[in-house]
């Protein structure tokens, strides 16, 4: 009996997805897509997974993907290019996924080609080092580069390489969305919905574990209850005080959960706030109204949010940020996301944040397969994503058995067992992430009015 080629390709991809979840140098997958993008005048490079059509002149859209805490750029590259291929746009779209490495990697190792030389930048101290914009590790007498500057540089690389762009998408999920949000607050890119060179630009962010508030006020206790739905409306924001709230030793508004400390010249050298301030000062000089300037710049950007409607597992035990300041934002990712949408509406008069939900938990594959991401990125619909930790792909296992390939069938079964014990979320069996944009819950509105 003939074996369906798509079935075995899918099973092979599943096995790799289960086993490859970190930065690898040389890359385990997509070796032909591994390229070095030079930074700091060629002193170092950032490892990038790149898809580009044979004719670079045909590229109309570029998608820059920001991976999650696992530094699994290969997975994000697979999800984004999968959406691109589903839309039939592989000849019109370029995809760039930089990887924020945590150990040494040479350009020759990354590409498999000895003609490339140089060392990769790395952020080896913690995930927060690159998520929150801190500089990379020192290399000799070079003091490193902010991860936010890296995004700017990859964006410039794209504009230099693809001269006929009509759209730029910057997207991230989970830690990638945390990074993307904070970068969008401070970066000069995206003002008035365009890149610095004038190319239309949209930032699409999915389910960040924490956010950065633009004022010291935080959601009232009534907005941080144990139960949360997508219909919750948080309209009460107050500044914490010792009488009624935790104040986190008066540090609840410190960056990265607020913008306190950014622009302050007294921050210790090498600290996250000092590095982000240095990055920001390239574009905004000493401004006595820095907070208002950042708010106005952020409001002009085209930013889209989406959250999993069952991403409700309480933060803690490594699930998501449980810092004192983070817990003032909400008890879980969905609640934090919904509260933040109302914060933006509350702090930016006339601003209507664009957001929706997909039916699922903390699942990047659902985010990238869903209608919302695909509508904004590729102007097309999403598709039914097969989840290997649910019964939704049971039929494929049956097909594998019928095909007589017991070995191939056993491998995804093992993957099912592993994934079912990955307490990613309290709900695993998900339905199709398809829903009409006008009926998505909740939508507060469109762009700024």
CATH class: Alpha Beta
- How large is the radius of gyration? 22 Å
**Poorly predicted segments:** 1-19, 388-392, 420-449
Strand count: 11
CATH architecture identity:
3-Layer(aba) Sandwich
Q: How many distinct folded domains?
A: 1
Fold-level CATH name:
Rossmann fold
Structural class call reads alpha/beta
Shape: globular
- Order of helix and strand elements from N to C terminus: HEEEHEHEHHEHEEEHHEHHEHHHH
Measured between the Cα atoms of the first and last residue, the distance is 60 Å
The proportion of residues forming helix, as a percent range, comes to: 25-40%
For this entry, give a set of tags.
single chain; 449 residues; alpha/beta; Rossmann fold; nine-stranded mixed β-sheet; two-stranded antiparallel sheet; 14 helices; 32% helix; globular; disordered N terminus; disordered C terminus; signal; AB_hydrolase_fold; transmembrane helix
Describe this structure in words.
The protein is an alpha/beta fold and 449 residues long. The chain has a single domain (31-392), classed as Rossmann fold (3-Layer(aba) Sandwich). The protein has 14 helices and eleven strands. The strands form two sheets. Strands 1, 2, 3, 4, 5, 6, 7, 10 and 11 form a nine-stranded mixed β-sheet that branches. It has a two-stranded antiparallel ribbon with strand order 8-9. Strand 6 (167-173), helix 6 and strand 7 form a beta-alpha-beta unit.
At a glance:
The protein is α/β, with parallel strands linked by helices and 449 residues long. The chain has helices at 5-19, 73-86, 107-111, 127-131, 147-161, 175-186, 272-280, 290-299, 324-327, 333-347, 364-369, 371-378, 394-402, 406-420; strands spanning 34-39, 44-51, 61-66, 93-98, 119-120, 167-173, 201-206, 218-219, 237-238, 303-308, 354-358. It has one domain (31-392): 3-Layer(aba) Sandwich (Rossmann fold).
């Amino acid at each position: 009996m003939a074996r369906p080629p798509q079935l075995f390709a899918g099973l092979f991809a599943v096995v790799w997805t289960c086993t490859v979840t970190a930065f690898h140098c040389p890359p385990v997958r997509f070796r032909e897509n591994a390229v070095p993008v030079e930074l700091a005048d060629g002193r170092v490079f950032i490892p990038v997974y790149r898809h580009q059509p044979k004719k670079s002149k045909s590229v109309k859209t570029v998608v820059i993907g920001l991976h999650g805490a696992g530094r699994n750029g290969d997975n994000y590259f697979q999800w984004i290019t999968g959406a691109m291929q589903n839309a039939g746009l592989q000849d019109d779209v370029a995809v760039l996924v930089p990887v924020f490495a945590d150990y040494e990697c040479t350009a020759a190792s990354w590409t498999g080609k000895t003609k490339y030389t140089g060392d990769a930048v790395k952020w080896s101290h913690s995930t927060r080092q690159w998520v929150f914009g801190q500089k990379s590790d020192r290399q000799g007498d070079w003091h490193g580069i902010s991860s936010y500057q890296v995004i700017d540089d990859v964006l410039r690389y794209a504009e230099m390489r693809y001269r006929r762009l009509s759209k730029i998408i910057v997207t991230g999920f989970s830690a990638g969305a945390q990074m993307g949000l904070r970068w969008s607050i401070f970066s000069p890119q995206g003002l008035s919905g365009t890149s610095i060179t004038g190319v239309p630009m949209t930032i699409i962010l999915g389910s960040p574990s924490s956010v950065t508030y633009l004022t010291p006020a935080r959601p009232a206790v009534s907005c941080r209850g144990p139960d949360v739905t997508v219909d919750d409306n948080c309209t009460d924001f107050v500044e914490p005080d010792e009488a009624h709230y935790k104040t986190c030793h008066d540090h609840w508004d410190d960056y990265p959960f607020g913008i306190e400390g950014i622009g302050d010249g007294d921050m210790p050298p090498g600290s996250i706030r000092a590095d982000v301030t240095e990055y920001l000062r390239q574009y905004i000089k000493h401004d006595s109204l820095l907070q208002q300037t950042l708010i106005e710049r952020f409001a002009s950007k085209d930013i889209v949010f989406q959250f999993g409607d069952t991403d409700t597992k309480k933060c803690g035990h490594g699930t998501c940020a449980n810092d004192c300041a983070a817990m003032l934002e909400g008890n879980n990712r969905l609640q934090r996301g919904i509260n933040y949408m109302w914060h933006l509406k509350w702090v930016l008069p006339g601003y209507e944040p664009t957001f929706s939900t997909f039916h699922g938990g903390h699942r990047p594959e659902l985010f990238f397969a869903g209608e919302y991401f695909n509508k904004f990125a590729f102007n097309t619909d999403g598709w039914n994503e097969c989840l290997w930790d649910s019964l939704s792909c049971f039929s494929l296992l049956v097909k594998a058995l019928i095909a007589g390939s017991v070995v191939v069938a056993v491998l995804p079964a093992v993957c099912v067992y592993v994934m079912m014990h990955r307490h990613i979320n309290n709900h695993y069996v998900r339905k199709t992430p398809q829903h009409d944009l006008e009926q998505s819950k909740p939508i507060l509105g469109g762009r700024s009015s």
